[in-house]
Amino acid sequence: MTTPTDHRVDAAAREHYLTAHQAMHLRVADRSVTNWSDDQPVEVVVATLRATAAELAGARP
């Protein structure tokens, strides 16, 4: 899994990134998110990103 490598990124931002990346990874059936998005129409990619974001927003305490 890739992570933000800029040392100016704080721990909370890094954690949000990893959570979002993992959620997308699970949603695209264990494929590389980058490779998956290259194989999909833009409408599918945007809809999947929005659905994942909505799911994560609902999971917040």
Secondary structural class: mainly alpha
Radius of gyration: 12 Å
Number of helices: 3
Average residue pLDDT: 81
Bulk shape: globular
The biggest beta sheet reads: none
User: How many distinct beta strands?
Assistant: 0
- Please write the string of helix (H) and strand (E) elements: HHH
Low-confidence stretches: none
Cα distance, first to last residue? 25 Å
Please give the share of residues in helix.
55-70%
Strand content: under 5%
Describe this structure in words.
The chain has 61 residues and is mostly helical. It is built from three helices and no strands. The protein is globular. Helix 1 (11-27) crosses helix 3. 3% of the residues are buried. It has helices at residues 11-27, 33-38, 42-59. The model has no long low-confidence stretch (mean pLDDT 81). Helix content is 67%, strand content 0%.
Fold topology:
Elements: H1 11-27, H2 33-38, H3 42-59
Helix pairs in contact: 1-3
Short description:
The chain has 61 residues and is mainly α. 67% of the residues lie in helices and 0% in strands. Helix 1 (11-27) crosses helix 3 (42-59).
